[in-house]
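My current task is to audit a protein record that another person submitted. My question to you is simply how this chain folds and whether the tokens agree. This is what I was given:
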Amino acid sequence: MPPPVSPTVRRRRLAAELRRLRERADVTGDEVARSLGWSAAKISRIETAKTGVKIVDVRRLLELYGEGGTYAEELLALAREAERKGWWEAYSDALPEKFATFVSMEAEAEAAWQWEPLAVPGLFQTEEYARQTMLAMQSLDRIPPGQLATRVGARLRRQEVLTREKPLQMTVVLDESVLRRERGDHRTMHAQLIKLVELAELPNVALHVLPLEGPHPVDAGSFTLLRFAPVYDITFHDVIYVEQLFSNFYFEEESDTYRYRLAFDWLREAALGQTESIDCIARIAKSVWR
């Protein structure tokens, strides 16, 4: 099985490297544009990953910056991969643009840390729980039945990152209230909690429950931190994804992602251990959702 590839991530990595090379060459975007007969706006779009970049254009930039050899070939390989389409593009009509971007980054992430105080994380949801979660939003955001089915399908497709050849290393801290908040009916909740127990047995999944009793270390809404492995010796910084009622956004600056890492560490430290968490989930499934 080939390694997971996200064109979005590859494009962003390529953009960052091209900008770094320009700055190392001590030339401005305007100067590059004049040298190549391009507009300054084109340089800006390339370096901010707002648009794709053709292989021939990458070659011209590398020549201008005096870059050759193995590193140049790695950047060209990155550019070729950035032209590929991801599986999520088949669901683009149903997925909000920023969420589709998150899915593309999730597909290539090496590890994910998620704090969730409201609902079972999408990567852990059963089909029926996912459907009920989306139906609960119908009073605020009318989703046509066909689009709803497409979104559920995309959510289930995302879950393949947990069982692929090099699976996503997933660590989740789940507020206990999520286990007790009904979505759908008792059958839906019972099946969902049983799935959580099963997923927690995977070697690449660490699931922790933050109990209702005791102090709450961080007053924060749900967030996900994605971490990436180097590709062609090119690194990509951590990304924080925050999803709100009608919007979502990212933090990419190290000063921001570091604070979220600290917050997650505090939440994980206050939560139950893996074995205790599994016991807690199984107990609630039996006592509350029989």
About this structure: The first helix runs from residue 7 to 24. The mean pLDDT is 88. The beta strands are 111-116, 169-175, 205-210, 223-227, 239-243, 248-251.
